[in-house]
Structure formats: C-alpha cells, structure tokens
C-alpha cells in the first residue's frame, strides 16, 4: 500500500476451525496480502458451523452427506480438491475416513482468552492444523489446553478458562453480533468494516480486491 494510506487495512475474518475453506481462504488472502505488500491488521471472530453438535461429535463423511446432501463421490472429490488447494498454499490436509466433526464453542472461548495474551492468531493456526492435519479432538478441554501450551501459553490457565467457562458470554455476544450483520456462512471477510467478501476467493481475486481497496483508500 502507498504511504499515503491513513492506516493499515482492517480485516475482520469470521470463521470456524472446523471449516476447511476458512483456512484455505485465509492462506489465499495472506498470499495476496504479501504479494501486494499491503499493510493490514487482522481480527479473527467466532462462528460455529455446528452449534448443536453433541460432545462425541460426528463422522465427517456422514456429517457432510447428512448436512449438505452430498454423495460419497462428491464428498471424495471435494476432499481431493481441498487437499490440492491446501498443498499449493502450504497447508497439510490429511482427510481420513474416521475423521470427525466436533463442537467448537470451547475452542472459541480459548481463542477469546488467547487474544488477551496477544496470541489469538497463532492459536487459530494451531487449531486448524490440530484438526485437519493431526485429527485431534477440539471439543476435549485437555486437548485444547495442550495445544495452547504447545504455542507457549500457560496450560493451567488455559484449562481453568475452559473449566469455568468465563468467556462463554462474551463469545456468544460476538457470535450474535455477526449473525445480526447477516453472516450465515464462513469464511466471511470484511475489509475496512464495510466491504464483505464471502468464501475462499482465490489468490487472484483477493489480489484484485486488495488493489481496488487500495485505490479507494487513496482517493
């Protein structure tokens, strides 16, 4: 961006760590941001793909067929497509027949806490990898605390945060805000708090969007 820009570009990303397109979309956006040398500040926000998901979770393949009506063949094609996109973006999807979907409300609470430690972005990336690469159960509080510790956060405090649910209400409030703004699917990317872009747009499209925004901000 030009030095004439008054401030870094604010980017709000509404997403869930169970969402493969969220990490794909983020990696595409990050690549475009680097290529355009855009000064920016990124803010992650919570969204639950499956707020009613029970504690034991659900087999991913069964979940996709049940929720979206996809055939097993379509599901397999989608996984292959996402795996290829991930590889191109430096992210390792390891889809497995026994992979499960889980409730992420606790994960979002942990992310809320990590933000108070200025480590939200790092934890978000670690959670994506924990789920899609290593098949860890992100509804298990001990697993979440372990992941927090692995990026240098205090494990005991992380576990306490999850056990006493101290950030449950703030997370629900933020989720409610984004729903009130019409966000019904993710990833949802909001530039400068007014330009909504939905879905993983691809590096080329994100690059074009950033160019248009730069022109608007310089006008």
Keyphrases for this structure?
single chain; 219 residues; four-stranded mixed beta sheet; two-stranded antiparallel sheet
Protein model, in words:
By secondary structure, this protein is α+β, with helices and mostly antiparallel strands. It has helices at residues 20-35, 60-68, 72-88, 105-116, 120-132, 141-150, 155-164, 168-180, 203-218, and strands at residues 9-15, 40-46, 58-59, 100-101, 188-191, 195-198. The strands form two sheets. The chain has a four-stranded mixed beta sheet, sandwiched between helices. Strands 3-4 form a two-stranded antiparallel ribbon. Strand 1 (9-15), helix 1 (20-35) and strand 2 (40-46) form a beta-alpha-beta unit. The longest helix is centred in the middle third of the chain and has 17 residues, at 72-88. The two termini are 13 Å apart. 32% of the residues are buried. The mean pLDDT is 94.
Low-confidence stretches: none
Task: Characterize the biggest β-sheet.
Answer: 4 strands, mixed
Q: Which percent bin holds the helix content? A: 40-55%
| Quaternary structure of the protein | single chain
Structural class: alpha+beta
| SSE pattern | EHEEHHEHHHHHEEH
Give the overall average pLDDT: 94
Would you count the extended β strands for me? 6
Strand order of the largest sheet: 2-1-5-6
Distance between termini? 13 Å
What is the beta-strand fraction? 5-15%
Radius of gyration: 18 Å
The outline comes out as globular
How many helices? 9
């Amino acid at each position: 961006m030009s030095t004439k820009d008054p401030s870094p570009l604010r980017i709000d990303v509404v997403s869930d760590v169970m969402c493969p397109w969220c990490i794909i979309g983020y990696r595409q956006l990050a690549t475009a941001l680097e290529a355009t040398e855009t000064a920016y500040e990124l803010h992650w926000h919570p969204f639950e793909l499956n707020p009613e998901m029970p504690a034991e979770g659900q087999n991913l393949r069964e979940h996709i067929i049940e929720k979206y009506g996809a055939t097993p063949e379509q599901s397999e094609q989608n996984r292959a497509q996402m795996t290829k996109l991930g590889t191109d973006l430096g992210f390792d999807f390891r889809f497995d027949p026994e992979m499960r979907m889980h409730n992420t409300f606790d994960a979002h609470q942990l992310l809320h806490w990590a933000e108070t430690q200025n480590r939200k972005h790092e934890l978000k990336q670690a959670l994506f990898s924990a789920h899609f690469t290593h098949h860890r159960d992100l509804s298990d509080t001990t697993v979440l605390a372990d992941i927090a510790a692995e990026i240098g956060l205090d494990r005991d405090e992380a576990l306490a945060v999850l056990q006493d649910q101290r950030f449950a209400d703030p997370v629900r409030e933020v989720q409610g805000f984004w729903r009130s703004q019409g966000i019904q699917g993710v990833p949802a990317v909001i530039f400068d708090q007014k330009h909504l872009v939905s879905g993983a747009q691809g590096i080329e499209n994100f690059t074009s969007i950033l160019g248009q925004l730069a022109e608007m901000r310089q006008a």
